[in-house]
Amino acid sequence: MMFELLVALKYLVPRKKQLSVSVISLISALVISLVVWLILVFFSVTNGLEKSWVQKLVSLTAPVRITPTDAYYDSYYYRIDSLAEASNYSSKSLREKLAASTADPYDPDSDEEIPPFWPAKDHDAHGRLKDLAREAVLAAEEAGANAAPFETSVATLRLNLKREGEKLSSMSQSAYLASLDPSNKDIHTSLLEPTVDDVDNLARQGYSLEGAAITALTPLHPYRIPEELLPKEGSATVVVVRKGDKALYAYLPATSGEVDSLAQILESQWKSWGAQVEKNPIDFSLPLYLPQGALLSVASEQEGVFQIDAQFQDVRLKGPVSLDGLKVAACKGCKKPDTHLKPLASAEAIFLPKPFREAGVRAGDEGVIAYTMPTTSTMQEQRIPVVVRGFYDQGIVPIGGRLVMARPELVANVMNAYDAAESSLMSGIDVRFEDFERADEVKSRILASLEERGVAPYWHVETFREYAFTKDLLQQLRSEKNLFSLISVVIIIVACSNIISMLIILVNDKKVEIGILRSMGASSLSIAAIFAFCGLTMGLAGSLLGLVLALLTLSNLDALVSLISFIQGHELFNSHFFGEVIPNELSGEALSFVITATVMLSLISGIVPALKACMLKPSQILRADG
Q: Which of 63-67, 106-110, 245-249 has the highest mean predicted lDDT (pLDDT)?
């Protein structure tokens, strides 16, 4: 086959005598490369986005969930707690069931008689009451996964938004409460890093962010420099505001180069007051102010007191200040908060979804979670103090914009005010493992284990693709992906059809050479292989060029997206839906799909001209040429 390949490469090399063929072959290869480039970029980005969406969904929920069925809530195992003094005559959540020392808390000597219409006990092989919750956990662990209970409830979130220099405002929002499993490592990927505003608000409320250090402060408005910060001597050029013969204030810029621009700004501000602005040497007897935008370097901080050490021209400001009139301008070590939620002071720590941050909420904002609990005479509102610990990206979870993550103990308190049997979403068991693509396999193993243990009727097992609140969306994403794959194949077919035209022209152009090769003993199969290799070579060349273009595009995707966003005047990818970062890794799945499809179709495109070439009779060709 080496001879046929060399002849095919010789035919594809551009020559003056076959200029038309060379131009068509070049255009065909370029068209294929453009198609490969577009498909690789499109599928790499969309596959990356889909993977990111699913990862966020799984981090907030779980790849597989086990939830109680109606049979569970009708079982003796669940209902017996309402009759047992040891259970305080109240039904227990799954978390409480798993923590209980015994599956059957009923004491026939002290508890009231069990009604005759109640379901019978479900015994194990040893004659003991089956611990349905523990059996479900064991089934998950037997499938090679980790299992932990979850609770979901509803409440009202009320927050007080205290901002320096602004009127106190509040926010009230109906919300879903979800328990945050400390062992869930995936949730950390969805957490958002704190902003400078978050650090500032935490510091004002008396909280600190672990590992974060405030490095600079800046004035909220023109800031009068405390006398204890001023040195006894120093030289600087200041901007003095004077009314008549009396100097009122002096503003100290950081460098002498900022004096003129600051003077122009102050002149426009004070002109209506009949004041004059002039540049003078510093006079420490005047009230000295720092303009907005000035930076005060922080040497250290302790209990809300910041030690300042900053240089303004030849004046060194050094000493303690508070946040009155100042705000945090910079910090270091501001990393994602720990997911092990602990009460901050007397309030419960919570995580809020990203829309709350966009609505003006900051870490450190305080409020309450309110819910109603029935009493003997009326419904009474209960309030639990909370403080915002941080924020997370909720991805495509439909209820994610109102999903508050809190400690399991807090959610359990709220959930106890409702009847858990009203909704299967109230509680269940999260099943976690490394690769969420194994969800179907793990589900099958859990179902088999539950069946073997005789508790399958009490549990419903579903993967993340089957959750009621995401099922339709994920199915739509998969349908669109299949549709785009079909469209891509059609586009590749159209691109490869140029190869047929080019090779037919090449066959007509090389009739004499074909006749000579046949007369010298070349077989029909050898002639067909030459033109098949021509089509295959063009397909490979176009694919490789398209791959290089795709890699260059993906490596500079952020710059390209920014350029297109600037041209059209708005974001190309809405961060609310697509996230803060657009995936730019080449998809192996897309690469294998497009290369395989292109090479196969290019090879098929070369078959028709190859058949025409091998059917030519050498005697007729040479006689016609002679």
A: 63-67
Could you tell me which residues are beta bridge partners of residue 344? 347
Strand partners, 146: 432
Instruction: Give dist(CA 526, CA 503) in Å, integer.
Output: 16
| pLDDT tens per residue across span 570-615 | 777 766 667 667 788 888 888 888 888 888 887 787 777 777 666 6
Question: Residue 297's beta-bridge partner residues?
Answer: 216
- 37 Cα distance to chain centroid: 26
Of 99-108, 190-199, 398-407, 429-438, give the lowest mean pLDDT range. Answer: 398-407
373 backbone dihedrals φ, ψ, rounded to 5°: -130, 130
Q: How far is CA 519 from CA 115, 247, 499, in A?
A: 102, 109, 27
So where are the chain's domains? Answer: 2-57+473-625, 64-145+433-466, 149-209+335-415, 213-332
Distance separating alpha carbons of residues 514 and 512, to the nearest angstrom: 5
Residue 478: both structure tokens together: 């998969």
Which of helix, strand or coil describes residue 212? coil
What value does the mean pLDDT take over residues 317-335? 88
Q: Which residue has the tokens 């309450």?
A: 368
289 three-state secondary structure: strand
pLDDT at 462 over 90: yes
| CA atoms of 328 and 176, how far apart (whole Å) | 32
Burial of 588 (0-12, 13-18, 19+ CB in 10 A): exposed
Sequence-distant (≥ 6) Cβ neighbours of residue 405 within 8 angstroms:
178, 179, 180, 187, 341, 350, 351, 352, 392
Burial class (CB in 10 A: 0-12, 13-18, 19+), 616: middle
What 3-state class would DSSP assign to 89?
A: coil
Question: In the prediction, which pLDDT does 424 show?
Answer: 41
Q: What is the pTM of this model?
A: 0.77
pLDDT digits (tens, 9 = 90+) for 262-292: 888 887 777 766 667 777 888 888 888 898 8
User: pLDDT at position 347, please?
Assistant: 84
Task: Look at the chain and count its residues.
Answer: 626
Residues 6+ apart with CB under 8 A from 371: 153, 154, 155, 156, 381, 382, 414, 417
Contact 220, 165 (CB under 8 A): yes
Residue with tokens 């597989």: 64
Q: Do 153 and 23 form a contact (C-beta atoms < 8 A)?
A: no
Per-residue pLDDT of 490-515, as tens digits, reads 888 887 777 777 777 766 666 666 66
Distance of CA 100 to the CA centre of its chain: 37
Each residue of 140-168: pLDDT tens digit? 999 999 999 998 888 999 999 988 778 88
At residue 244, what are phi and psi to the nearest 5 degrees?
70, -130
Burial 85-110 (b: 16+ CB within 10 A, else e): ebbeeebbbbbbbbebeebbbbeeee
Question: So what's the pLDDT on residue 204?
Answer: 86
Whole-number Å distance between alpha carbons of 452 and 463:
20
Contact (Cβ atoms closer than 8 angstroms) between residue 201 and residue 391? no
Q: Provide CB contacts within 8 A for 499, sequence distance 6+.
A: 28, 535, 538, 539, 602, 605, 606
Among the listed residues 118, 129, 126, 130, the one whose alpha carbon sits nearest the alpha carbon of residue 83? 118
Tokens 């790849």 correspond to 63
Say how far residue 96 (Cα) sits from the centre of its chain: 33
